[in-house]
Each structure stands twice: as C-alpha cells, then as structure tokens.
UniProtKB/TrEMBL annotation:
Membrane-traversing stretches: 13-33, 100-121, 141-168, 189-216, 306-326, 333-352, 372-391, 411-432, 466-494, 550-572, 578-596
PANTHER family documented for this protein: K(+)-INSENSITIVE PYROPHOSPHATE-ENERGIZED PROTON PUMP (PTHR31998)
Topology versus the membrane: Multi-pass membrane protein
Entry-linked Pfam families: H_PPase
Aminoacyl-tRNA synthetase keyword on record: no
Highest taxon of source: Eukaryota
EC number: 7.1.3.1
Listed name of the protein: H(+)-exporting diphosphatase
GO CC annotation terms, alphabetical: endomembrane system; membrane
Source organism: Zingiber officinale
C-alpha cells in the first residue's frame, strides 16, 4: 500500500491543534458575550461609533431597573437564588446535578456489567488469544478488552455529561444578555445569542475530538500493534456518550414539556395571559426546562452521534488495510475530517457574527440558513484536501469477510454525499416547519375550524415530511456502500456530522432566544423588545427542527454502520429475513420505537396533568395572582417537573439498555440483528415525523401570534395571518392546543428515538464478543 502524503508527525500534531483552536475560539466568543454587562450603565457604541439608542430612550422611559431585573431573573434560572420572582426556586444546575446522581449510579453499574460480560468471554483469562479477523496472529486477552472497554465507556459517559452541563451553563449565562441587547436592535440580540450557541458548539466538538484522540493514544501504549483489540475497546466511548444522552434527552424532555404544556393550557388558553407572564405559576419551570432539555439534552445527543460515527469508522478501518498495515494517518481519517470541520465552522461562524450584520427581522432566518450552506460548501473543499493528504491512492476495506479494493476519491464521495444529504434533510425540515412556507401556513389556516382540524393537518404534514429525507438517506446508503462498503456508510455519517459545531450553534441559539423572550416578559420590558425576541425565537424553532433532522439522519447512517460492524464481529455471514430467528427479531425491533414513544409520551402527559391541576389550583385558591398583587408558588411547579423527570426517565432508559442484553443473551446474535434492523427502519421514520409535526404546530401558533405584533416578519405579517389573530382568538387557542400536543413529540419522543436506534446498535457491538460466544441460551436449551 502506498504511503500517505501527510506524515505521521503532522497527523499527531494537527488533530490536537484543531481541538485547541476550537476551544480557544469558543472562549473568545464567550468573552465577547460577557462584555454585555448585567448592570445599569452607559450605552455602548456601534461599529460606526454612533451610540446605540435603547428602546426605553426612544419611548422616553430609560428605566435602568430592567437591567437589574434581567440580572436577577438570570441568576434565578441558573443558580436558584431567592430573587425577584422566585420564592423558593429551583435551579437548572441543581436539576442536572440531581439527574446526574441517578445517572451516575447507572453508569457505575453498567460499567461493572461491561467488565463482567466481556471478561467472561474467555473465562477472565490473561492469556493472548487468536485474533478475530486474522487467526494467524495473536491479540491481547479478552480480559484486557473488558477493562479498556469499561474505561472507554466511562470516558464517553463523563464527556457526554460535561457537554450537556457546559451547554446549560452557557445558555443561562447568555439569555439575559440577549434580552438586554434586544433593546439596541434585533441584530445585536442575534449576535449575542448566536455567539453563545457557538461557544457550546465549539466546546463540544473540540472536547469530543480531543478526548477520543487522547484515549486512542493511551490505549495504544498497552495494545501496541493489536489495533483490532484497540479499536474494538474504543467503541465503549460511543456507548458511554449515547447512554448518557438518552437519559439527558428523556429526563430533560419530560421536565421541560410537562412545564410547557401546563403553562400554555392554563395560562394562554384558559386565563388568556401572555407566554412567560410572571403571574403563571409554571413559568419558571418552563424556562429552566428550556435549558435542561433543549440545550443539555441536545448537547449530549449530538456528542453521542459524533462519538459513535467515529468509533464505527475506526472499528471497520482497524480490520481493513489501514489497520493491518498499521497506517496511523489513514486510521485517523475520521478524526482528521472532524478536525477540518472545526476550522471550517470557525470560518463559517464569522460570516454570521462579523462579516455581515443583521438589520431587520426578515434577515434572521436567511442568516441561519446561510450558515448551513457556507459550512457545507467549505467542508466539501476541506474533505477533498483531507482525503488527498491523509489517504493512500488505493487501499482495501473490510466487507463482510472480504477485502474490497477502494480508491481515495471514492471515500471523498462517501463523506461528501453524507454532508450534502444532511443539507437536503435540513432544508426539507425547514420547508415543513417554517411559517414562511405553505405547509405550516396551511396548518395555521386549519385552526379556523378548531383544534381537531389543526391536529389532522399537523399529523398529515409530519407523515409527508418523511418522504424526501428517507430518499436522501437511502441514496446516501446505496452510494456510500457501493463505493466503500460499511466504512463508506460510517464516514458518510461522519460527513453529516462534520459541521457539528455550526449545527449546535444554530440549535442552541433557539432556546437562548426563547429564554430571552421569557426574561423580557418577566422583567416588564417594552412590548417592542418582546417582539424582537419572539422573532428570534421563531427562527430558532425552525433551526431547532433542522438540528433534529441532522441528528436523526446521522443516527440512521451511524446505526447502519454500527450494525455492519456488529454483524462482522458476531461472525454472521448473512442476515436472512426469511429465517424465523431473524424475522421475529425484525418485527419486535420495529415495535420498540412505538413502545418507547408510548412510555415517553405518557410520562409527559402524566406530569403535565399534575402541572395543569396545580396551576389551576393556584389561580383559583391564591387571591391576587391575576391582579399581580400576590406571588405564585413557583417552587411547587418546579418540584412536579423535577420529580416526574427523575422518576419517569428510568423505564424508557431501561427498555433501550436492556433489550440488546436480553435478546443477545437469550436468543442469540441472529435475532438481535433482526431487532437492530427493525428498530432502525421504523425508528427513523417515527422520529422525523414526530419532530416535524411538533415543529410545524409550534410555528403555526407563532404565525398567528406574530400577526398581532407591529413588527411581524415576512409571512408572519401577511394579511392571511392577520385574519387568524390576534392572540386569544379562537384560532389562536386551537393553535396553542396543537402546540401543546406537539411539545412531547418534537422535544421528548422524537429526539430520543434517534438515540434509541444508535444506542442499541453500539451496545450490541460492544457486547458482540459475549453474544457470539455465550448468546442464544434459549435456542441452545431447546435444541
């Protein structure tokens, strides 16, 4: 095999340097955000030296007390101090720590399970064993694989938790600053929110890359030339990342949606008060939920996808010519792609924050879309460069027991098609969830005749929105597998996630803007400021749906790549659906996403029921709440969300984590392969449909709400929208009901499903040695 152009030393330098650049850039963005002071003071100056006049000054108010109020509310949401609107509040930080205590117990227990299962493959022997794919060579003992897989699992789990925690802290730091910048103009507020999202995006991308790279090099000190064992144990990193993401997504989703549904149904529909009105007892729980669900959950989720796609590619590469010939530069091709992604996203971010300035509401959504287009175009060039310098011109890739001859340009097309498929999925998602286009406008129009027609139109939209993304995923799979077998699919998934820093920045921007609007309402700021934050939030809803589309699409490719690696490791020659063992697994696997969705939806419903009852009780029994003379009992509502999320996240998590273990141990690897295939096929489609349906209902509501504002954007200010409004009208109430139905779909069940399909696949791969040796106990007994 030919040598690569990029020398080994350059590879060993470039990857950590790219990660450090990402961290430094994140810190630089954080410093710029921190310049927005949460203390009353003199107004700053704009780029051209002209003073930024505040809305309060224009309206002759200039009430600096709102600055103090914003600072107090931010501290309340973040730290839980007894300030302003919160008698005995609960902090987002505290909720995460409570959640992490429960998750930590699981993490330790599951780490022990990994060690026991994998160590028992060879009876905890310390002797070297014949390699799985090269019987003429000897590899490290199974006990070593058990130890290092356990360590990798813990590393991935801790990195995932840290990713979620950092995202939440950044969001709570930025929300009030975004509110205050909205006093100067929508452009200032946009830059603050987007820079804050970029802090999270770059920290997560860089941390995920550097921790994985360090783990590989540390493991290599023991494994030496046994790269088969080395990269098999590294798969534990992906398992740790996704298992924590599952609990973060489910727990955070239940928390935020229970509060959101309760606040909307009683506050907006029954009492006709604005969103985030401080008179609403559930308003604090709702704002805390935005951070622990939408921010911390998404951070852990996309970190898990990144870790698993990298691990899937590394496992396949280790048994291909890269691993056989010990070509470390070519082995690190997935990591070099991620490194290039950090640099490309850095350049892309500058287009939004420095090169161009947002001056009107209508420019917000196009600016976010340009981020996707610019990053995709630049990354295509970056992929070509990395492929040219890091890969030999010709090499072989493992393909179910055979070695497939592949050219480097073929791998370029695999990564590029995944990258561009992600953009297609993103734009299709935007079309079906943005109120600038006819699908959401049709849903909004259906609210004229009540909530029932709104629900019917929304469900139809969600089902229809599945079509093009599935074709995009199918074409990506076919092309990438034809060119480079399962390794091609793995790097296609990596291509879709290569711009993860930009994707996360766009995704985190939405909840930050949402919280900023809530703070504006609670601080009693000008209605014009709330209009600006609403416009930011409406664009954020669409981009959040785009982010979920990316996560689901990449999860499908990652799961398939992990499935291929599992089939190879378990020594399954073919997966024949006509075989009873496989077919029963297939049909049960296709059912699992429905079972999982039922559990999460009911959890949100049960918690929301308690929340609605509590909010109604307070409105009815505490005199003066509606008049603003009495303070609601926020703490009770927060406790309802907290208790429900901690309690209810365990059964869905147990379903996902225990299914591969039970099926593999009792029914064997063939049945497990059917379960993985079935859950992948049905899970992806339910996830896309649920996320887009919920996103469409949310923006249909905002389409009607913006109609009553003075500064509506584009479609939001159309004559059609005005005929449906204003807030409090019957069509608006129908839209709010649709939005509350969609909340658990788009923020709990839908996003969690992509974790389900990839988590089951990576768990099966990690435990494959045990299943291949000791699995299928029931069939062995009855045979």
């Amino acid at each position: 095999m030919e040598a690569t152009i990029l020398p080994l030393l350059a590879t060993e330098i470039l990857i950590p340097v790219a990660a450090v650049v990402g961290i430094v850039f994140a810190l630089a963005q954080w410093l710029l955000v921190s310049k927005v002071k949460l203390t009353p003071g003199k107004t700053g100056s704009s780029k051209d030296g002209v003073s930024d006049f505040l809305i309060e000054e224009e309206e002759g108010l200039n009430d600096h007390n709102v600055v103090v109020k914003c600072a107090e509310i931010q501290n309340a949401i973040s730290e839980g101090k007894n300030l302003l609107i919160w008698a005995s509040g609960f902090r987002a930080t505290s909720f995460l720590f409570t959640e992490y205590q429960y998750v930590g117990i699981f993490m330790v227990a599951f780490a022990v399970l990994i060690f026991l299962f994998l160590g028992s493959v060879e009876g905890f022997s310390t002797k070297s064993q014949p390699c799985t794919y090269g019987k003429d060579k000897y590899c490290k003992p199974a006990l070593a694989n058990a130890v290092f897989s356990t360590v990798a699992f813990l590393l991935g789990a801790i990195t995932s938790l840290v990713s979620g925690f950092l995202g939440m802290k950044i969001a709570t730091y930025a929300n009030a600053r975004t509110t205050l910048e909205a006093r100067k103009g929508v452009g200032k507020a946009f830059i603050t929110a987007f820079r804050s999202g970029a802090v999270m995006g770059f920290l997560l991308a860089a941390n995920g890359l550097v921790v994985l790279y360090i783990a590989i090099n540390l493991f290599k000190l023991y494994y030496g030339d046994d790269w088969e064992g080395l990269f098999e144990s590294i798969t534990g990193y992906g398992l740790g990342g996704s298992s924590m993401a599952l609990f973060g997504r489910v727990g955070g989703g239940i928390y935020t949606k229970a509060a959101d549904v309760g606040a909307d149904l009683v506050g907006k529909v029954e009492r006709n008060i604005p969103e985030d009105d401080p008179r609403n007892p559930a308003v604090i729980a709702d704002n805390v939920g935005d951070n622990v669900g939408d921010i911390a959950g998404m951070g852990s989720d996309l970190f898990g996808s990144y870790a698993e796609s990298s691990c899937a590619a590394l496992v396949v590469a280790s048994i291909s010519s890269f691993g056989v010939n010990l070509d470390f530069t070519a082995m690190c091709y997935p990591l070099l792609i991620s490194s290039m992604g950090i640099i490309v996203c850095l350049i892309t971010t500058l287009f939004a924050t420095d090169f161009f300035e947002i001056k009107a509401v209508e420019e917000i959504e196009p600016a976010l879309k340009k981020q996707l287009i610019i990053s995709t175009a630049l990354m295509t060039i970056g992929i070509a460069i990395v492929t040219w310098v890091a890969l030999p011109s010709s090499f072989t890739i493992f393909n179910f027991g055979e070695q497939k001859q592949v050219k480097n340009w073929q791998l370029f097309f695999c990564v590029a098609i995944g990258l561009w498929a992600g953009l297609v999925i993103g734009f299709v998602t935007e079309y079906y969830t943005s109120n600038a286009y006819s699908p959401v406008q049709d849903v909004a129009d259906s609210c004229r005749t009540g909530a029932a027609t709104n629900v019917i139109f929304g469900l139809a939209l969600g089902y229809k929105s599945v079509i093009i993304p599935i074709f995009a995923i199918a074409i990506s799979i076919f092309v990438s597998f034809s060119l480079a077998a399962m390794y091609g699919i793995a790097v296609a998934a990596l291509g879709m996630l290569s711009t993860i820093a930009t994707g996360l920045a766009i995704d985190a921007y939405g909840p930050i803007s949402d919280n900023a609007g809530g703070i504006a309402e609670m601080a009693g700021m000008s209605h014009r400021i709330r209009e600006r934050t609403d416009a930011l939030d409406a664009a954020g809803n669409t981009t959040a749906a785009i982010g979920k589309g990316f996560a689901i699409g990449s999860a499908a490719l990652v799961s398939l790549a992990l499935f291929g690696a599992f089939v190879s490791r378990a020594a399954i020659s073919t997966v024949d659906v006509l075989t009873p063992k496989v077919f029963i697994g297939l049909i049960v696997g296709a059912m699992l996403p429905y079972w999982f969705s039922a559990m999460t939806m009911k959890s949100v419903g049960s918690a929301a029921l308690k929340m609605v009852e509590e909010v109604r009780r307070q409105f009815n029994n505490i005199p003066g709440i509606m008049e603003g003379t009495a303070r609601p009992d926020y703490a009770t509502c927060v406790k309802i969300s907290t208790d429900a999320s901690i309690k209810e996240m365990i059964p869905p998590g147990a379903l996902v984590m225990l299914t591969p273990l039970i099926v593999g141990t009792l029914f064997g690897v063939e049945t497990l392969s059917g379960v993985l295939a079935g859950s992948l096929v049905s899970g992806v489609q339910i996830a896309i449909s649920a996320s887009n349906t919920g996103g469409a209902w949310d923006n249909a509501k905002k389409y009607i709400e913006v109609s009553s504002c003075a500064i509506g954007s584009g479609a939001g200010a159309s004559e059609h929208a005005r005929t449906l409004g204003p807030k409090g009208s019957d069509p608006h109430k129908a839209a709010v009901i649709g939005d509350t139905i969609g909340d658990p779909l788009k923020d709990t069940s839908g996003p969690s499903l992509n974790i389900l399909i990839k988590l089951m696949a990576v768990e099966s791969l990690v435990f494959a040695p045990f299943f291949a040796t000791h699995g299928g106990l029931l069939f062995k007994i009855f045979n």
